[in-house]
Amino acid sequence: MSKEYNKANPAKTVKVTFKESKPGEKEYQVTVPAGSTILQAAIAAGVHLQSACGGKGTCGKCRVILEEKDRRGTLPEESKYLNSEQIAKGTVLACKRTVESDLTVFLIEQKDAYDRKTELEAEHDYDLSPLIQKHVLQVDIPNTQDQRSDWERLTAKLPAIKKPFNFNRSIAAKLPQILRAASYQVTGVTAGNELLAVEPGDTRNSSYGLAIDIGTTTVVVYLLNLINGKIMARRALTNPQQGAGADVLSRISYVTENPAGLTQLQSQVIEALNQMIADICREKGINPEHIYHAVAVGNTTMSHLFLGIDPTYLAPAPFVPCFRQAVTVKAAELGLKILDNGLVTVLPLVAGYVGSDTVGVMLAGKVDELQGIHLLVDIGTNGEMVLVGKGRILTCSTAAGPAFEGAGIKFGMRAAEGAIERVRINKDVELEVIGQDKGKIRGICGSGLIDAVAQMYKAGIITAEGRMPNSLSNLAKLPPSLRRRVLNNNGYREFVLAWKEQSATGENITITQKDIRALQLAKGAVLAGIRILMKRLGVKIEDIDQIHLAGAFGNYINKESALTIGLLPQVSPSKIKSIGNAAGNGAQMALLSTVEMAKATFLAQKAEHIELSAEKDFQDEFLNALALEQNY
Amino acid sequence: MSKEYNKANPAKTVKVTFKESKPGEKEYQVTVPAGSTILQAAIAAGVHLQSACGGKGTCGKCRVILEEKDRRGTLPEESKYLNSEQIAKGTVLACKRTVESDLTVFLIEQKDAYDRKTELEAEHDYDLSPLIQKHVLQVDIPNTQDQRSDWERLTAKLPAIKKPFNFNRSIAAKLPQILRAASYQVTGVTAGNELLAVEPGDTRNSSYGLAIDIGTTTVVVYLLNLINGKIMARRALTNPQQGAGADVLSRISYVTENPAGLTQLQSQVIEALNQMIADICREKGINPEHIYHAVAVGNTTMSHLFLGIDPTYLAPAPFVPCFRQAVTVKAAELGLKILDNGLVTVLPLVAGYVGSDTVGVMLAGKVDELQGIHLLVDIGTNGEMVLVGKGRILTCSTAAGPAFEGAGIKFGMRAAEGAIERVRINKDVELEVIGQDKGKIRGICGSGLIDAVAQMYKAGIITAEGRMPNSLSNLAKLPPSLRRRVLNNNGYREFVLAWKEQSATGENITITQKDIRALQLAKGAVLAGIRILMKRLGVKIEDIDQIHLAGAFGNYINKESALTIGLLPQVSPSKIKSIGNAAGNGAQMALLSTVEMAKATFLAQKAEHIELSAEKDFQDEFLNALALEQNY
């Protein structure tokens, strides 16, 4: 297309085609304004590229491959994150390349987050008293002596304690027809003094709810039967907001910088949820209109984005959220594809970085019933810590996540197929990789990283301060099987976990000095936060009765490794307990029990938030907490 | 287009063009499925044809003119309602003609309802205490010691009595930006414990509301300043639902018979309102988002249609409404173009045919303060009667309207330009016609009809039983100027009010025997209803202290004529008082005063509804009330 044309048409558009690498795989096509980046086009096309930095060119994750004809040299940022082999193949960073004319782009194979151990949780031990109640009503038939309105004759039959019921126009709109078609025998669905639906006949056997855990990385949905409290299904999808960055700060700045960003990120997460809901309903043969309530948890940023509320001011100090209370809106208002009149509740939150997910963890951890001193730690993309005891609940948070979830780590990745999840170093390195085919190692996930660093420290490959030896004399102490794994890459040391022959990408999978530093910064922040909480409550390590590890990470982390690298206070490993996907469990509890729902508000209000950035001794504690070796 | 093509395309569409008769006037074009009637096309095009029967072919009102090339003989229904001159001009009934190929149709000139005497009402004598309140708030600026959410810091500054404020997602969505852009000084708009808006700075001077009177025939909107209670503007439009019939029963059956009918009629009335609101806001320089509350009244059917609620079961006995309580919904839910979060309240109603308009009349009539015995009569398309006294409020209704508003009357029409509104018969007939140009008489409106029949009776042209003499001996008693006006039309008598030379349509404007019968049926029903109420309350004519006539009709009716034809109990004319557009005034009062709003619910609940169709003595009273001459 000529320059002339381009000038005359400032709004010129181009077509971008994304192809999966395997033949016969899907293609995605999208039309975007000329000058858009490939990453922007991918987001517009609904193609999920990894992007840990949100398009800033500082993570090197959003790699795609160009056709030979479209290759035009290498950018400085690309030289930084791509090796010569990758560059030779046509690999570029999608966030750094703009599209000026129609373009075809090849995606680098990466399956969606692999769902490692999906078992539906065991029976719950709390009262089944959901907000949603169904009542079969034999409504009085009108006659000239009884000319009451349909609304009055219906609500007169509902339990007296909840009156008056709020008027609901959309129910009223169809009420006359429904009453008469059903010969005045209907089922009323209530939530407190809200009438959510009037259904013909007796539908008491069909009543469902959702518990939703909106992680920065993964969105999880549970379908629960509100009649018996049983979990009927669970689905997880990568949070499609990944395109706007892997961590909450990237997402916030994406919203702040893009006028349509808020709407876009909200609809992405709603769309992912709707896809899972539709799936589950199809599989279970359930009418989505019989799903009356969804209880969601997420960190404060995820909670804001889910509700379409501007998270801009969560980023700068003093990190002020727009709301903290439990919030309930109509499903239709969010576009969630359950009953339009259905309710969506986001559990209350504590602070800008202690969200409703942490309140869910407190519920699941039964914080109100705990005796003694208990520490709850939820490490996801962010780390939230809760210290319970002496009649108080203290909370704090740190931006722990990136390293633990693979961002900022050279070969870091989510706990997905091909990720190294366990490392043992005896004479040589032994690996456990997610998925069957060990020949295709793609990277290392959080639990693998902690294992690797702990084992490297124990094997003497790194010092207590986290330094990889760069003098040959130190290396000489290692057995040859390990020594050959220590490479010198342009003056920087790397430790090879998997040789390129085992690797899906054709390169050695290594732990770099920078990776170790990133992990130290992350774990140092968590440990310093915990120590600040302990100081404020006035407790010592020996006072701690139990450490509860929440989250998927908590499920898979090796307790000894966590203690070895000094991520947690040096308690006996027997005091460390995994409490599973506690945030999601908390959402389920609130869905099934109004007592638990009320308790969520109570716990959120009772929690005292310690803003670490405002604590004078945090800096000191942080510096002390960086070393791997920790004596207290 | 060939038959072949037609077969292959069952979904063939045709283009219908509606042209106003005057050159240079508007054209309307619409594409509809082949086989649609011209009336359906007109409704789809937003062209308002008169249609009293809702397309059943039984009123003869929906006249249009075809081009010469499109004329194809005359249908039996057309012969019944059209004279030979009209037929020769190409006049057809739009409801009886289907469109099979592209067609141009000429509209018969008829201006919109003429707004006879629009003066803005006088000062009110009730407290100004609107539901809508504005509060200037100096919100605390956050810091690390005060990490409360924006919602908390905002609502903490709102008056304490209303807490907790319901969470509003759409306000929260923008709250962080608004607070900071306004340096934390904002105006909160509240309605009880609902927060409707948060506006930057101090906007207390700009607060507006609407009072809406949804008549079956005319929709009226008043803009009120909520700061001082003043009426700033008034607009009226013909209710565009007219296309589905002139009376409520036609509209109900239209909804019952057409799957999309409810949505269609609702959006028609909302569209008319939005047009007037936009007009007013433009003229007054008001931001529609500063209109926070609309209070609407209408008969029960209009109230249901306005809210998009199925009115089907208002038609058959026992005439059960879907709701009777005051109902408040968000403006956005109805599509009303004021602040999206603004509230729309429909005042409570009493029964299937005693609507919120009657409750508005009770408010405006200050029914709770009246001493003695008072009768309130609101005659619109329907007639509602309220008898107040002895600590009780009795109500009833009759389908009075059609004759009074021109339907079912040969030359009946709305009180619009060209309508005869006053008739005196001395030696000859003297007329007063709405609008300046008396040469263009188009028909007769309700007050003119009552005058005409009263004067014809007084002049001896009709008997006390309402019969026009068909023997020459009776006619002989009339002066020649009147005698020549009594024509014999195929054996049926007609009395000429205006000769064809004066008439816009080129035909004599007459009162027929059938017209007189229609009026007798209508007024007989009203009078019988009043007498049933009087019996039930145990009062006699001499007990009545005052008769309050509400509505536009009450403004223009000649009291003596109303007494002459026996429409009202035979009280002294001095006891009859017009109370103006009382329904609309009641809506204004409820908008401006929460006391009046609460009173509306009190009055609606206190009112005892007498269902005339279920009263054994109604039939007798009705037969007694038919004669013009009434002695009690």
Short structural description:
With 632 residues, chain A is an alpha/beta fold.
Q: What this model shows, in words?
A:
The structure is a homodimer of 632-residue chains. The first copy, chain A, is an alpha/beta fold and 632 residues long. Mean pLDDT of chain A is 89; it is low at 1-10 and 111-122. The first copy, chain A, is globular. In chain A, a hairpin with a 3-residue loop joins strand 9 and strand 10 (218-225). Chain A has 21 helices and 26 strands. In chain A, helix 11 packs across helix 20. The N and C termini of chain A lie far apart (68 Å). In chain A, the strands form six sheets. Chain A has a six-stranded mixed sheet with strand order 11-10-9-12-14-13, sandwiched between helices. Chains A and B meet through helix 5, helix 6 and strand 13 of A and helix 5, helix 6 and strand 13 of B.
What fraction of residues of chain A sit in β-strands? 15-25%
CATH class of the largest domain in chain A equals Alpha Beta
Overall shape of chain A: it is: globular
Query: Oligomeric state of the chains?
Result: homodimer
> Uncertain regions of chain A: pLDDT < 50 for 5+ in a row?
1-10, 111-122
